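Side project, low priority. Logging it here so it doesn't get lost.
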Amino acid sequence: MRALLTGLLGIVVVTIVVAGQQPPAPTGYDDTPMQPNGRWHIHDGKRPQPPIVTPGAMSPAPPPQDAIVLIGAGADRSAWQMMDGAAVTWAMNNGVLETGKGLIRTRAEFTDYQLHVEFATPKDVKGNSQERGNSGVFLNGKFEIQVLDSYQNITYPDGQASAMYGQYPPMVNASRPPGEWQSYDILFASPRFRPGGTFEKPAIVSVLHNGIAVHNATAFWGPTAHKKIDPYTPDNAKGPIALQDHGNPVRYRNIWIRPLKGYSE
């Protein structure tokens, strides 16, 4: 065990570090830019934590008849590729995909869609805050719905499970205990651009976490980034579904998508 002495505004702070252990992951920041609403810093740890709502029992159902199955029983990894186009290296057994090194993305790209994702964070809990069951679902490859073990795990609210990462916390924390299967049901409308690439409308998302509404037709301020919010660019108008590797063995199953084409006339 050793002590670290740090001078800060004339104050000496003593931090005790136990040999062989990493310091706790940060549960928030106050040195990041303000969000566009001017109320909170990005990843602000002082932001109120969402209230906890216990979800009902999970009842897995087969995909709809018109869904494109991306991960499921009997499916392989052929719908996916590494971000550089190489074959997927993440392990898959009996319809369950486990995160490996690097991000993966679908080969196909989409615009407006309904997306269903089931995931499970590790039952063996290690770490805290952002170091516990961390992954993410990226819409159009740019807009992240956070995956995290947020069961009795405090982190910055806009980075907890089902958050629009770095932008909006979920309205409630509907997380199940670690190791249990959970679901996201997502409705996503891509951003719109006028001819010539002028930005017109933001991306809009609604999310159910374990059957409970956590975002209701909410606009992204821009593409997801850590400690900042990137600006919209015309390439955001269409893209793949991507899954994030964050160094934690998160499992995925039963991922399907339904492109939305509007009402029949």
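Brief comment: The chain has one domain: 66-259.
Revisit when time allows.
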